[in-house]
Amino acid sequence: RKAKRKRITQRQFEVLQGAFLVRDTPSHEVRAALAAQLDMSPREVQVWFQNRRAKYNRERALKKQKESQVN
Predict the structure, then answer these.
(1) For the whole model, what pTM was predicted?
(2) Which residues does the UniProt record annotate as the domain Homeobox (predicted)?
């Protein structure tokens, strides 16, 4: 049976988002440090960054699409 999905806290989000703004692809060492600091597994941190990059790329593509419709 799968484990129940864990939602991140506001503090965890703020720290992860701050790290994302500095670098969207953190090194293994940075991911491990964030995981220890935030009481998350390195895998959870890795997946958060993967999902955040996908969201960023989706939003950027949508913005480009809207800009091209205006012209």
Answers:
(1) 0.86
(2) 1-59
